[in-house]
Amino acid sequence: MSDWLIYRGAGAPHDGIEHLPPPPPWRDFDGGPVVPPPAALDPASERRLGVRPAEAEARHHRPGETERELVNAALYLRRPLLVTGAPGSGKSTLAHAVAYELGLGRVLSWPVVSRSTLRDGLYAYDAIGRLQDLQIARQSVAGPEAPSVAAEDEPGGGIGRYIRLGPLGTALLPAARPRVLLVDELDKSDIDLPNDLLNVLEEGEFRIPELERLAGSASEVPVLSDDGTRVTVRDGRVRCRAFPFIVLTSNGERDFPAPLLRRCIHLHIPLPDKERLASMVRAHFGEGAAERHEAVIDRFLDREPGDVRAVDQLFNAIHLTQKAGWTNEDEEETRRRLTAELLRPLDRTR
Ligand SMILES: Nc1ncnc2c1ncn2[C@@H]1O[C@H](COP(=O)(O)OP(=O)(O)OP(=O)(O)O)[C@@H](O)[C@H]1O
Ligand SMILES: [Mg+2]
Fold this sequence. Notes:
alpha/beta, two-stranded antiparallel sheet, 11 strands
């Protein structure tokens, strides 16, 4: 394996990200002040991947070669990775696999729905909450609860307490190492979102007008990040430093505008074959599980053209078989029937 690969898909966490070459000059960002990194390992990613650190190397599901190479291309080029593929092919989990192996901490997750706007991903400002708090503070100014007025002594009159960065906003904070951002199911969005997103990702920055207005009186204001930590925003502008590793997923429900496609690295995850399924089963159920449950895997793969099945259905069937401990002939019949039910193609509800 060539050593240009930073993400190796090998499972066990390592510090390869330290060796990521500098960005191309047109993707070099210089935001500040640099925020502290998140904790390197996140239990949510371990759960998604089915691994525990001690056995990560042995049990980990290995991604395909193209998958590994295109993840690295996105890391080198500081471009978002647009991941397409059938339901359950592992699009969303890829973000966790990269964050876990490279020790990049909690995956910032933005599940997109038709109402999602760019602003939701960037930040939220609770203007009403702020007004209410100010009123309460003024009324009780002479009373024993006066301390809440202290917020007014904070930079910008405490406005930062009411601003919370969203997953995209947090991913763009100036950090020494890339954060991992999952923009999940972008194809479900309103027609404008992909283009709006594109602009922010091109510039690697965004502005918070509520803080920009304070320029002069308060240039550095602490706000809340998506992780719930306090971070400093300077002059109402958030500009990244290490460009985040961004996974945009799509089930192909609609096409994206050409400018977005041009600025992303496109990875299509094919339907999993037997080898890939066996490797995922091993990751979740342990060594030997793929062999023990070969019949269910074969059953999963035996589909009519056009049938859609997701890997989660296979996992459900295997988990149930393991836990129910069916052994005798009658139970074998139950197992067969339930497996067929659980593996029913998703586009055939009846
Ligand atoms: N690298 C991996 N290691 C272990 N398990 C994996 C891996 N990739 C995917 N899986 C498992 O496969 C299942 C489906 O993965 P995932 O949810 O990422 O698919 P998806 O393509 O995002 O599906 P959808 O389009 O429905 O959102 C999950 O249960 C996940 O745990
Ligand atoms: Mg998904």
